[in-house]
Amino acid sequence: MNKYQLYALAAFLCCLVFACKRSSGNASGSSQIIEKLFEKGEDIAADPKVREASIDSAYSIFSSYDNDSITRFFYRRATVAYYDLYKYDKSLRTSHKVYKMGVEAKDSLTMAKAAYFSGINFSGKNNNDSAFFYYSQAEKLYIDINDTSLTGEIGLYKAYIYYNIGEYVQCESEAIKALRLLEAKNSTIDIYKCNNLIGSALLGEGNFPEAIKYYRTALAQLDNLRKEGYPDDIISNYKAYCYNNMGRVYIKQKDYKDAIRIYEEAFPGIDTRVIEPSLYAMMLNNLAYVKFKSGDNRGLPDMFYRSLHLRDSIGDRSGVVASNLSLGEYFAGRSDTARAIMYLKFAYDGARKIKSADDILNATKLLADIDLKDGPFYAEQYIQVSEALQETAKANRGKFARIEYETDKLQDEKEALDRKNSYIMGASIIVLLFVAAIFIIYYLNSRNKELLLIQEQQKASEEIYQLMFEQQSNIESARTEEKTRIAMELHDGILNNIYAVRLNLEFINKKADDESIVKRKEYIKELQNVESEIRAVSHDLSRNDIFNQGQDFGTILKFMITSQKNNFNTGFDAEIDPAIDWDSMNNTYKVNIYRIVQEALQNINKYSQAETAGVAIMQRDNSLNIIVTDDGIGFEPEKAKGGIGLRNLRKRTDSLKGILNITSQPGKGSSIEVVFPLG
Questions:
Q1: Cα–Cα dist 412/406, whole Å
Q2: Strand-strand pairing, 670-677 and 659-664
Q3: Angle between the N-to-C axes of helices 277-293 and 256-266, in degrees from 0 to 180, rounded to the nearest 10
Q4: Which pairing describes strands 659-664 and 623-630: parallel, antiparallel, or unpaired?
Q5: Phi, psi (5° rounding) for residue 575?
């Protein structure tokens, strides 16, 4: 590698470092703005619309950033912020985007987190299939990178999905695996959730004693939550959930006495100011139901009504359906068939609207028994829904296992494809770099030779032109000396002699005869005329010498311009400011001026096809303006800027510390203007 190639490489590295520093500075300033926007978006006390707008603004900034670790962190943070605002679609869009960025960057941790975020968003949208797919994908990615930080939570969420579709055995199995991971991590709140979920799964399986055991284990975790600083409202709600679930176990066993005991034990410890209204209404309805089932009708149906009104006021649609079912069953037990049918029909219509198959089954079963008029219809509905549920359960049994298997298969195929693509990409890059290196070396060598040749030619031309100037200066100096010598001879020799003759004639003129006097006076007058003429010639010679010195370079330029010839028969005109003091200008300036005009004229002769062309050189205050124009075919400056001729013009203009302006359009001629300071 020669020295020119080393210079080029060094310049490239300097530009790269400068660009990186500038990019880093810009990113640092923008990061502060993004951080402030995130703080607003994550402020739970702020208006949700303001929070969403802040996250949107942050997203609009970092979405234009390059794919680096900081940018991916911003995307993950925005995903969580949108999820907290229940903006599931925006959160999903962001998580899908950051997953793709993780794939591009081969960042498995980002991919795992993005898949996890997608799973919890689909859970929020009650899309169990998609949620399970992304949870399984995230779980495998975490296992692959040997990171168990979220595998327990992912297993818990998968268990919730199994529970929601009624797969209680698989729910229990998945939750037990998650519990082991969560206990190792000592995540108290997730341990509570896991024990509570296992108890619910066992309740669904009919394993009542074990269900009570796990509910009580969950209840025991509340003391640890209190020690860890969790607020009382969260602990009160978790406690109420446990008591409500244990009451459900006793209801399933038809042990209404113990169910009443559990609910009555729970209510005194419940702070109605902090407990969730929907949970309080559920417990109130369940307590009323077990009292009714145990034959204790004190406070009924008012307790049912209070629960129903509370659920209706907060928009708890599934809770309203449950309350209507309880009221229907209560009035049926009290032989008030009309009101029983009314509430059961309310329950049936509400269950259809929220698509709750279990509630439809319960409503149709009761209506089929007590509604003599429409009983057959509801019996048919009961059979249809029951069969549909059985088919759904059958389809679901293997579906999530298939999803998990297909997720693993897709992940394995993707990894194999990534490895294959990496090999292909690596080989391609090596080949391309090798070819590019050969081409660059060849190009730089050729370019260096061309530039060296051009530089040598320019140097030779400038030396020749410098010699021409020196020779011209010598000639002018000799001419000036000769003129001065002649002037001195005329003044000091001839004039003095003539003056002496004139004095003699004046002396002779003292003779008195008239004829001599007249003639002598004529001679004297003639000598005076000759003396005046010689003196005038002497002064003219001196003035012409100064004039020729001042105009010589301008004359050279004018001759060069007006003597141009080309194949287009272009007429050339020159306008040179006579006020320019060429003598005071150093030869370097003159050489560059001469070459600039010469280069511009050469381009006109080669390409312009002009009828007329002109060069104007004018002095404006302390600057010199050179304007070369033609009425030819013109050109596009952007396309032609890489040409050698225009590069030479720029180089010479730069050496004069001047400014080069090129104006041209196809078909509209061209104008080249160079302005540079004098002195």
A1: 10
A2: antiparallel
A3: 150
A4: unpaired
A5: -130, 110
pLDDT tens, residue by residue, 24-60: 444 556 788 999 999 999 998 899 999 999 999 999 9
Binning the chain into helix, strand and coil, the percentages to the nearest 5 are 75, 5, 15
Spatial distance between the Cα atoms of 668 and 665, rounded to a whole number of angstroms: 5
pLDDT band at 404 (very low <50, low <70, confident <90, very high): low
Instruction: Please compute the mean of the pLDDT values over residues 80-101 and round it to a whole number.
Output: 93
Higher pLDDT, 648 or 503: 648
- Rounded CA gap, 34 and 31, in Å? 5
Residue 143 pLDDT exceeds 70: yes
Buried b (16+ CB within 10 A) or exposed e, 327-355: bbbbbbeeeeeeebbebbbbbbebbbeee
Alpha helices in 128-254 (DSSP H): 128-144, 151-164, 168-185, 188-205, 208-227, 232-252
Cα 484 from Cα 353, distance rounded (Å): 121
**Token digits of residue 107:** 């960042």
| pLDDT given for residue 379 in this prediction | 84
| Torsion over CA: 666, 668, 670, 675 (sign) | negative
Q: How far is CA 616 from the centre of its chain?
A: 50
Cα–Cα distances (Å) from 186 to 145, 228, 230, in that order, read 21, 12, 15
Long-range Cβ pairs for the range 268-271 (8 Å, 24+): 269/236, 269/239, 270/236, 270/239, 270/240, 271/232, 271/233, 271/236
pLDDT-derived band of residue 607, with 50, 70 and 90 as boundaries? confident
Lateral strand order in the sheet of 623-630:
571-576, 612-620, 623-630, 670-677, 659-664
The first and second tokens of residue 189, run together, are 């709140």
Q: How deeply is 2 buried, as exposed, middle or buried, from its count of CB atoms within 10 A (0-12, 13-18, 19+)?
A: exposed
Q: Looking at residues 374-385, what average pLDDT do you find?
A: 83
Q: What's the mean pLDDT in 221-226?
A: 89
Q: Does 666 sit behind a cis peptide bond, omega within 30 degrees of 0 on the bond before it?
A: no
Of residues 618 and 530, more confidently modeled: 618
Kindly state the tokens that stand for 427.
Answer: 């080989």
Contact between residue 511 and residue 577 where contact means Cβ atoms under 8 Å apart: no
**Cα 6 from Cα 31, distance rounded (Å):** 37
Pair 635, 608: CB distance under 8 Å: no
Residues 72 and 580: their CA atoms lie apart, in Å, by 66
Q: Mean pLDDT, to the nearest integer, of 290-297? A: 90
User: What is the pairing mode between strands 612-620 and 623-630?
Assistant: antiparallel
- pLDDT, mean of residues 484-513: 60
Q: Helix, strand or coil for residue 674? A: strand
Measured from the Cβ of residue 361, the count of other Cβ atoms closer than 10 Å reads: 18
Say which amino acid occupies 463: E
Mean pLDDT of the chain: 81
Two tokens at 563?
């003597």
Q: How many residues does the chain have?
A: 679
Task: Give the span between the Cα atoms of 368 and 328, in whole angstroms.
Answer: 13
**HSE (side-chain half, CA atoms, 13 Å) at 37:** 19
Q: How many helices (H) and strands (E) does the chain have?
A: 23, 5
pLDDT in tens, 246-268: 999 999 898 989 888 888 888 77
Looking at residue 605, what DSSP letter applies? I
Neighbours of 220 (CB within 10 A): 13
Q: Is the pLDDT reported for residue 499 higher than 70?
A: no
Q: How far apart are CA 64 and CA 390, in angstroms?
A: 51
Put residue 536 in one of left, alpha, beta given phi > 0 → left and psi -120 to 50 → alpha. Answer: alpha
Ramachandran quadrant class, 167 (left: phi over 0; alpha: psi -120 to 50; beta: rest): beta
pTM (two decimals):
0.53
